[in-house]
Write a structure and sequence with these properties.
Structural class: alpha+beta
Helix content: 10-25%
Order of helices and strands: HEHEEEEEEEEH
Strand content: 25-35%
Number of helices: 3
Largest sheet: 6 strands, antiparallel
Shape: globular
Length: 136
């Protein structure tokens, strides 16, 4: 093989292996995801999730019968002045920016970003936030 062919092969392999992953998705959450502000999704890992103190619970309907989404204050993460939570979708914990409203004891109303039935990370969100920043 000629030197140029060897260099060309090495360059080609390097480009394929080192190529960035391109993700096309809408802003929001669900089956598709778009990373914002350097906060990425974190893969579910049963062996380490327990050590990180991660607890997941479905968002229940409001006890007063209203359509309000009420979540525990422990689920919120302050990400440089923006409120976010993590929601478990299949094999990932996905960060979701939320807008909060009134507080009722240990519960906080979420006016935008979440719906009843989603699998909310109620404990360990700060650990997931740190993991999401490391993944970048």
């Amino acid at each position: 093989m000629k030197t140029t062919q060897i260099l060309s092969s090495i360059l080609s392999v390097g480009l394929v292996v080192g190529a960035p992953t391109i993700v096309l998705a809408h802003v929001g959450h669900g089956d598709e995801f778009q990373s914002e502000d350097g906060i990425g999704r974190v893969q579910v890992k049963a062996e380490t999730d327990q050590m990180l103190g991660i607890a997941v619970e479905p968002i229940a309907p409001s006890p007063d019968g209203s359509f309000a989404v009420m979540i525990p204050a422990t689920a919120l993460v302050d990400a440089d002045g923006q409120q976010l939570v993590f929601v478990k979708y299949n094999d990932f914990y996905e960060p979701v920016k939320v807008t909060t409203g009134t507080t009722q004891g240990e519960l906080i109303e979420v006016t935008q970003g979440l719906t009843v039935g989603e699998n909310l990370v109620t404990q360990g969100g700060l650990s997931l936030y740190a993991e999401s920043k490391k993944a970048k």
